[in-house]
Every structure is written in C-alpha cells, then in structure tokens.
Amino acid sequence: LILFQKGQTSTPPPFEIFFCFGEEWPDQKPKEKKLITVQVVPVAARLLLEMFSGELSWSADSIPLQISHPDLKDKMVEQFKELHQLWQNQQRLPP
C-alpha cells in the first residue's frame, strides 16, 4: 500500500479475501463456478486504498452486509475521514 501511495507501483495491493466451502480450491475451476464462496472485504484496507488513490467515496450504504458493531464502524469511518483530510492538507503544502 505504501509503494502504491508513493507511485512506485501502478497496481494497488489486493485486499479482498475469498473463502470456498465444500470444494477443493484453488483448482482449475474459477471461483464463480464454486458452490459456496464468500468474499470478505476488510473495511479499513478498502478505506486506506481509496484514500491513497483519491477515490474516497465509501459510505455505509456501499457494503451490502455489515456484521461489525455499528458504533465501532462509525467511529472508524470518522477517523479515516479525518486522516484523509489531514493527508489532503499535507499534499497541498509546499515542500
């Protein structure tokens, strides 16, 4: 993530985690053909990636299933928004 933020790599790091239940994986079949797959997206990783790429558009409505405690999530989102604002302000300062 740091290398991506510094522009030293053009591809962002992967942050999705996939689980497959009831079948061997990985194998020759794509994950879309598996009987049961679960995709987990760590909210903190997604926010950091969007913050560093300038695409911070995350909202609580953009995640279809949220299991985390809402109060904790709301506090974390506010903290990331503050970090993003600080980062933007720092980018505007002359060297």
TrEMBL record:
One MF annotation (Gene Ontology) recorded for this entry: RNA polymerase II cis-regulatory region sequence-specific DNA binding
One GO CC term on file: nucleus
Gene Ontology terms: biological process: immune system process
UniProt-listed Gene3D superfamilies: 2.60.200.10
InterPro entries: Interferon_reg_factor-3 (IPR019471), SMAD-like_dom_sf (IPR017855), SMAD_FHA_dom_sf (IPR008984)
Residue ranges of every copy of the Interferon regulatory factor-3 domain listed in the record: 1-53
Signal sequence coordinates: none
Pfam families in alphabetical order: IRF-3
PANTHER family, per the entry: INTERFERON REGULATORY FACTOR, INTERFERON REGULATORY FACTOR 5
Protein name: IRF5 factor
Organism: Balaeniceps rex (Shoebill)
